[in-house]
Structure prediction request, 115 residues.
Amino acid sequence: QVQLVESGGGLVQPGGSLRLSCAASGSIFSIYSMGWYRQAPGKQRELVASITSGSANYGSSVLGRFTISRANAKNTVYLQMNSLKPEDTAVYYCNAQVSAISGYWGQGTQVTVSS
Prediction:
């Protein structure tokens, strides 16, 4: 089992920045990738960014604005979000994959971009 705890969400004005954190505990040795997804009201959950030991992958809507990083010693993954837009408003979920078809989810953290 893997437990994921997210933090860092909140309310920010358009053009602002936020950093999300996700700390993993439990069977962390089994994790081979971590990432962030988001879900806005009435929309499907979508990939924001993911990271393995070798590379990072981003959704097209956040490319160039968001940066994912991982601190292995702290079992933590971060999402630095810059130049935020109202359409970035969503619940952001941390994900940890232990195989291609098996993963774990955090409880979600709300990000609201509004003036």
